[in-house]
Amino acid sequence: MFIALPLYSIAGKVIALDTSVVLNQFRAATPSLSPLTGLFFRTLTFLEHDIKPVFVFDGKPPVEKTPVVRNIYSLRVLNCFWGTKDSIELLKCMGVPVIQAPGDAEAQCARLVRDGVVDAVASEDMDTLPFGANVLIRQLNAKKDRYVETLVDLCILLGCDYCDKIPGLGPKRALTLIQKHRTIENVVLHINRQTHPVPLLWKYKEARKIFLDKTETPVTNLVWRELDEEAVVDFLCHTKHVREERIRHRMKTFHEHRENRREERKKEKAEGHMRQTRMDNFFRVTRKRGQVRRNSR
Fold first, then answer.
1. For residue 220, what are the CA distances in angstroms to 100, 141, 284?
2. Which of 75-79, 140-144, 232-236 bottoms out in mean pLDDT, i.e. has the lowest?
3. DSSP bridge pairs for 120
4. Which has the closest alpha carbon to 128: 140, 115, 116?
5. Distance between CA 63 and CA 262 in Å, rounded?
6. Cβ–Cβ under 8 Å, residues 112 and 54
7. pLDDT tens for residues 42-56?
8. What pLDDT does 31 receive?
9. Distances (CA, A) of 91 to 236, 258, 263
10. Which has the higher per-residue pLDDT, 137 or 191?
11. Which of 285, 292, 287, 290 is nearest to 42 (CA)?
12. Contact between residue 283 and residue 42 where contact means Cβ atoms under 8 Å apart
C-alpha cells in the first residue's frame, strides 16, 4: 500500500536510512553521478526540510541467509564498501550521525524504530517490515504486534532470505491462506502436499525467530551538528575532485531554502495553514536523460 505523505508532516522527525540502498539507488539511476555526490544532495534535501537523517551501514551478513542471498548481500556490501569510509567522512562534515549495524542494516533500522530511537525508516526495501519497523515511509504502517507476526509468516511463505519457500505457492494463494489460517503451522495443514510440497527440514521457525528477535542493539546518543560548509567543500572538491562550483551552488540554494522556509513558517503560523509537498517528489532520484551532464561527478 502506497501512502503519499505531505513532506511537512515529517519535519523535525528522525529518519533512518539503509546507506547501501541509498548509494546503490544513485549508482543505478544516474551512472554519471558519483554516489558520494548523490549522498550529498540527498542529505541536503533532508536537512533543508528540517528532517533529521540517520544513516545505517551494513555489517556482517547473518549465517542464516541462504548461500545465494549471502552472495548477493556480500556483493551489495562490496559494491559500496569502497565508499563506506568516504560516506562516513562526508556525513561527519555535514553533521549527520551514522550507525554501524552488527548485521543487516534494514534489521538495524527496524530495531531503531521499534526501540523509539528514530521515528521512521525511509526505504524501498520491504525487509524492514517483518523485522518490526512499524513505520516505513512510502510503504506500509503495521501498527500492532500481531499484525507484524502475521506479516512475518506471509513473508516466509512468499520467500525470504533465511529459508526456502513452499514450491508452487504464489502470492495470491499465500495471502488468502494466511488471512484465513493466520499462521504457517495452520497453513500447512490446509494445502495439497502433492502440488505444494513442504521443503524437507524447512527452517521457517528459525527464520521467524530472526524476524521477531527483540534483542536490543546499544546505540549511542545521536547528535546532529551544524553543517560545516568549508569541510564539505574541502572533502568533496579538493579530495574527491568534485566540481566546486556545483557544490557551492547547491550549498547556496540550501541556505536560501532554509531561510525561505523560516519565513514561510512565520507566515503559515499566522495564516494557520501549511503548503503541502508530496513525499514522492522528495524521494525522486532519477532525472531526464537530457539533463545528465556526462562530465559531472
1. 11, 27, 31
2. 140-144
3. 15
4. 140
5. 49
6. yes
7. 899 889 888 999 999
8. 67
9. 11, 19, 27
10. 191
11. 285
12. no
What topology does CATH give the domain 7-140+246-289? Answer: Rossmann fold (3.40.50)
Hunting for cell 494445502 — which residue is that?
Answer: 191
Q: Which residue has the higher pLDDT, 110 or 140?
A: 110
pTM of the model: 0.67
Place of cell 528532517: 51
CATH of domain 145-211: 1.10.150.20
Provide the pLDDT for residue 227.
94
114-to-10, 206, 269 alpha-carbon distances in Å: 17, 21, 32
How far is it, in rounded angstroms, from Cα 12 to Cα 46? 10
Which sequence spans correspond to the domains of the chain?
7-140+246-289, 145-211
Quick check: 127 and 104 in contact, CB under 8 A? yes
pLDDT at residue 72 above 60?
no
Residue 48 backbone phi and psi in degrees, to 5: -75, -15
Grid cell locating 79: 559494491
